[in-house]
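step: validate -> pass
step: tokenize input -> pass
step: predict -> running
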Amino acid sequence: MGLVLRNGSSRVIQRKNTKTAYHMKIADLSYNSALSFRKNINKKFNNLLQKVNFNPNHELYISIHMNIKEALYKKFKNLKTLREIFKTNEDCIEFLEELIWRGEPESPYDITSQVYKCKDGWYKCKNTGKEFNVLTGTLFHSTKIPLPIWFEIIFREHSDKRGLPASMLVREYGFTYRTAWHILQKIRNAMGKENHQELSGTVEVDEYHAGGLLKNMHLKEKLKVKEIPNQNKKLLQGFVQRGGNLVIRVIPNVSDSTLNAGVLRYVQPGSNLYTDDNPSYQKLPPIYNHGVVVHSKGNYVNKDNKNIYTNTMENGWSGLKRVENSHIKISRKHIQNYTNEVCFRYNTRDMKNSADACTWFLQNIQDTKITWRQIRDAEYTRYNRNQARAA
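step: predict -> pass
step: emit ->
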């Protein structure tokens, strides 16, 4: 028996002098996903052989048509082509089913359960008896906004380095401000999967005080601020792995215990840790190769070792500054969600274009459902860094 895979649109099993067509839809849509693709081919190939009474003495020819992959990588390069490809909700749902399920529906309630197909794109979980579709449990759960509009906003949110203010969506899509703001907050919450990873190798750490200048505040506000240090600031701590990912977290204060707890959580022991001359980092346990840059004396590169600096983290802060400038005000309550957007954009910088980054985003939208009440109360999702993501 021989197996031949070739690009094209036909799917044929050849038996003696007859040819019978079988539908075998496979799409490689993930970023750098060769291993997953091979597993997907084997799974679908075995399922096909179980359904077909095939004589092993004959050759089996299967031709795989990469229609979605071709549309994605050759045509989906900008907003115009995105609108041409995704015109209806059905187009988007078909795309998501191939992207997330790889053509094999999986119950979000019990991944081991058998799945029955219902009408209108819905499925039923045998073990739980619950109905679902590919949007269940995602940020699109029960949405009334057309999916092509969601796809557009996600694409624009990544491609525009300054981010999208809700007022722009109000003008361009006719949403109310409340609807536009909640759409963006849901997208930022889903982007949080990139803002929780453990870093290793050479890691730079720095703090950032977000907020307006004291001289621009009203006199009454100035008096309140002077009573408590940093009252008008939102305190952030950032970690970046050189050649790797960025993590930003909101911190309540800049005490020794707070700063060092962040390092212990996000930086693997044994890593090269480079910081400024903040005395808090001198109290870390000796599990890092700690290098210091004396910013207080105007030095931004260590004089003895030119490899010790925190300029990469400064690049991460520049992304946050651009986002800050796009909004009239970012409250202390919600700023962590805005940092998710900055980290996602930074961590996907090496992908070919925004289409790849958006595909990566859509490939990992499981368990990103969040309600209006949770957004209002800033109860954003805390993702598990050990949770498996699409390759």
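step: describe -> The chain is about 35% helix and 15% strand.
step: cleanup -> pass
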